[in-house]
Write a structure and sequence with these properties.
- The complex is a heterodimer.
- Chain A has helices at about 10-20, 25-40, 55-65, 80, 90-100, 105-115, 125-130, 145-155, 190-195, 205-215, 220-235, 245-255, 265-270, 280-285, 290-295, and strands spanning about 45, 70, 85, 120, 135-140, 160, 165-170, 175-180, 195-200.
- Chain A has 15 helices and nine strands.
- In chain A, β6 and β7 (about 165-170) form a beta hairpin.
- Chain A is elongated, with a radius of gyration of 24 Å.
- A five-stranded parallel sheet of chain A has the order 2-5-8-1-9, sandwiched between helices.
- By secondary structure, chain A is an alpha/beta fold.
- Chain A folds into three domains: about 10-75 and about 130-200, 3-Layer(aba) Sandwich (Rossmann fold); about 85-115, no CATH class; about 205-295.
- In chain A, α1 packs across α2, α10 packs across α11 and α10 packs across α12.
- Chain B has 13 helices and eight strands.
- In chain B, β6 (about 285-290), α11 and β7 (about 315) form a beta-alpha-beta unit.
- In chain B, strands 5-4-3-6-7-8 form a six-stranded mixed sheet, with helices on both faces. Chain B has a two-stranded antiparallel sheet with strand order 1-2.
- The radius of gyration of chain B is 26 Å and the shape is globular.
- Chain B folds into three domains: about 5-70; about 150-185, no CATH class; about 190-360, von Willebrand factor, type A domain (Rossmann fold), CATH 3.40.50.410.
- Chain B has helices spanning about 5-15, 25-35, 40-55, 55-70, 105-120, 125-140, 160-170, 200-220, 245-255, 265-280, 295-310, 330-335, 350-360, and strands at about 145-160, 180-185, 190-195, 220-225, 230-235, 285-290, 315, 340-345.
- Helix content of chain B is about 45%, strand content about 15%.
- Chain B is of the alpha/beta class.
- Classes of the chains: A alpha/beta, B alpha/beta.
């Protein structure tokens, strides 16, 4: 099983393609993506918030030139929101129109009611019907465990059965990226279907490279200082250590202010871009910004 | 030289022996993955295995250890040896057993022991009584209070269910018969944090058994942690159905039995790693501790305030509360108490049953706020 639109022969080549779309990977992630594409397996990504799980799915979609179909999970998510739903108002309208036109063939009319055009495709069905596509099942840990059961069904066969219509099969299975923040353990059966990868915060050098790649306007010195400060913040005891997403936001804020370097003054006024909890800000300010920014 | 499949399967067996999730389906995935990569490149082999044979961040360290050991030719050293656990099998007095011969007398004696044991402090029982209490704790029903769910169920009263009404109307050829629905309910999540420090050691076993009973009645909605000097998630260990097996697994997992207490820090870690992300939101949180805090009591107060803001209800069970003349004077207890909805004891079988009622949402010892 393979995916259309992929022309990478090795993990390194795929890493190159991803980099061209401003996403820097390491060996592990590149191999994970490569195997997911080659084996047609869903990729299960776990890691701290803001390490780039969602961004990876978006970039994969750009690399493959395929649309990204996103299913944001939440508590109480059910089949009619994730798979499909019948469009009752339109069915009713159709019935009324047929009545007005005086249609006599009742059997045919009834058959027409459960036609594909009255079926509203929700993300999972949409992904099976769009080929090629990238399906992002975001924060699956937020959905109830019942939901995982039918997600498992869709992800193992790439088919959806609509009782009134029959089985809908994907022409070519979509590329699937499942992300989780580990607020609860996801069922093993689901994980077993997937390739599992744990995403770490990037190393200092890689983070500088990511900032430079995403924000070409940022001075090299600024990128280095911001990355260093972010690395130090992650070592602190914070409610929400900054992810790469926050580092990029912070740099963007500093660039917008015209800063070429990160000093305590500019850091203090832009701290809200990187620390989103009042307690965290207070803790860092109490520890002194010089300590955070000191050194090279 | 052995062929690739044999080598890789051998590696998977090593990993499984070390406790890794290397089931046949995952091994199949690994072999398929290796097929797409360069078998002679150690990096590729490493990643093919890691992507297929790990199921969580905790598995990665073990994987690395096994990988290094297997592919360097050495045998992996066994994992951390679990401390020996004395498991006492709870036995009920059986008629015809032991010294007496009169079955009827023994049976009536058994029912009256329940009454006697009900209010006895579990810290002061003999081994036999303790086993009997353990057996009785295991059958406590500690299901959780219900909360409204997002989903609906058909009901005789309530708001109109548009989809079902339209479907029914279609079925009846246009005649409208309004159908109604109300919200379904789901049990609330229950989080139980048991203090296993030295001062709590007479009660820790009974409280963990209670947590096990709660996990058995509440299913996946119950999360259990132990606190002392290190926060340990015990939910998976307590999934064993047999109480003694669950206790043995929990004892093996807890690294800080009978140590000190840094409850404030533990609670902070719980809230940072689990609570704030969703585990404590809308949950019923039970903290079973005597509040003898060695760390900063102010931190404990601060974290309890945070917990209160997240949780639906916070219950504090302090076994020492039942002692005559008890007053919450320890700094930790005094700091925590303003942020607690229910303050109860949990020192005896009867008190644990009362705690179960509290979790069920039938107030027994509601403190005026």
């Amino acid at each position: 099983m393979g995916h259309t639109g992929l022309n990478a022969a090795s993990p390194d080549e795929l890493a190159g393609l991803l980099e061209r779309h401003a996403y820097l990977t390491d060996d592990g992630l590149a191999t994970a993506c490569f195997l997911a594409l080659r084996m047609g397996r869903p990729l299960f990504l776990e890691g701290e918030a803001g390490v780039g799980k969602t961004e990876l799915a978006k970039t994969l979609a750009r690399v493959l030139g395929a649309p990204l179909i996103r299913l944001q999970c939440h508590e109480g998510l059910d089949a009619s929101q994730a798979l499909y739903d019948w469009d009752f108002p339109r069915q009713l309208l159709h019935l009324r129109a047929a009545e007005a036109a005086g249609v006599a063939d009742v059997a045919r009319l009834e058959g027409e009611l459960y036609d594909r055009r009255f079926l509203l495709a929700r993300p999972l069905l949409q992904a099976l019907e769009t080929s090629p596509s990238v399906l992002l099942v975001d924060e699956v840990d937020r959905a109830d465990d019942e939901f995982e059961a039918f997600l498992l069904e869709v992800l193992s066969d790439f088919t959806i059965t609509v009782p009134e219509l029959g089985t809908i099969r994907a022409e070519a299975p979509p590329v699937v990226v499942v992300t989780s923040n580990r607020t609860r353990e996801v069922h093993d059966a689901l994980k077993r279907r997937c390739l599992y990868h744990w995403l770490e915060h990037p190393s200092f050098e890689r983070e500088v490279a990511i900032i430079r790649r995403r924000l070409p306007d940022a001075a090299e010195r600024l990128a280095g200082r911001v990355a260093r400060a972010a690395q130090r913040l992650r070592e602190r005891d914070l409610l929400k250590p900054p992810g790469v997403a926050e580092t990029i936001d912070w740099t963007e804020a500093l660039v917008a202010l015209g800063a070429r370097d990160l000093d305590p003054g500019t850091a203090a006024v832009t701290l809200g871009a990187v620390l989103k909890y009042r307690e965290d800000q207070q803790r860092v300010l109490a520890g002194g910004l010089d300590a955070l920014l000191g050194g090279a | 030289m052995r062929d690739v499949t044999e080598t890789m399967v051998g590696f998977a067996r090593t990993l499984r022996a070390a406790g890794g999730p290397a089931d046949p389906q995952r091994v199949q995935t690994m072999l398929e993955a290796v097929g797409h990569l360069d078998v002679l490149d150690p990096g590729d082999v490493y990643w093919a295995g890691r992507l297929a044979l790990c199921a969580g961040p905790a598995d990665i360290e073990r994987y690395d250890r096994c990988f290094a050991a297997y592919f360097s030719g050495a045998t992996p050293r066994p994992g951390r040896k679990a401390p020996p656990v004395v498991v006492r099998r709870a036995a009920s007095p059986r008629p015809g057993d032991g010294e007496g011969g009169d079955g009827r007398a023994l049976r009536s004696a058994a029912s009256s022991t329940v009454e006697v044991l009900r209010d006895r402090d579990v810290g002061r029982l003999t081994a036999a009584e303790r086993a009997e209490v353990a057996r009785l704790i295991a059958v406590l029903d500690a299901g959780a209070e219900h909360r409204p769910s997002r989903r609906f169920a058909p009901a005789p009263g309530g708001r109109i269910d548009p989809a079902r009404t339209v479907r029914e109307t279609l079925r009846r050829g246009g005649e409208i018969a309004p159908l109604r629905r109300t919200r379904r309910t789901r049990p609330r999540r229950v989080v139980i944090i048991v203090d296993v420090s030295g001062s709590m050691s007479p009660y820790a076993d009974a409280l963990l058994r209670f947590a096990h009973a709660a996990a058995r009645s509440g299913g996946r909605g119950v999360e259990v942690f132990s606190a002392g000097t290190r926060l340990t998630r015990l939910t998976r260990e307590l999934r064993f159905r047999d109480p003694d097996a669950a206790m043995a697994a929990a004892s093996a997992a807890i690294p800080d039995w009978s140590g000190g207490t840094r409850l404030g820090e533990e609670l902070e870690e719980f809230l940072d790693r689990f609570g704030q992300r969703g585990l404590a939101r809308g949950a019923i949180v039970v903290v079973a501790s005597d509040g003898w805090e060695r760390g900063d009591a102010a931190l404990l107060g601060e974290q309890m305030a945070r917990l209160r803001r997240l949780a639906h209800r916070v219950i504090w069970a302090n076994p020492h509360r039942a002692r005559p003349g008890y007053a919450p004077l320890t700094a930790g207890m005094a700091a925590a108490l303003p942020h607690v909805d229910d303050f109860t004891s949990g020192h005896s079988l009867g008190a644990l049953a009362a705690l179960a009622h509290l979790i069920k949402g039938r107030p027994h010892a509601r403190r005026p706020r």
